[in-house]
Design brief:
This protein is mainly α. Helices cover about 75% and strands about 0% of the residues.
Length: about 70
């Protein structure tokens, strides 16, 4: 089946340096879920998603939080 390949592809895309809206928003949702539901630290999330530092994760979590409040 294609499922394992699709999952791997999505995982690689989320960790990629690409910054298009189609990639950034799902990445931010993952950041939000890891922080709010699994209580990961900002730096841990940054390491998982191969982001430069924790401030990128802070921004992503805040962005999704603001969107959910609207």
């Amino acid at each position: 089946t294609l499922f394992p390949y699709t999952t791997l592809f999505r995982s690689l895309i989320l960790k990629s340096p690409l910054r298009s809206e189609r990639i950034v928003r799902p990445r931010q949702v993952v950041m939000y879920l890891l922080k709010t539901h699994l209580n990961f630290k900002h730096q841990e999330i940054a390491d998982i998603l191969k982001r430069k530092d924790h401030t990128t994760v802070m921004h992503g979590v805040e962005k999704i939080t603001r969107l959910l409040i609207k």
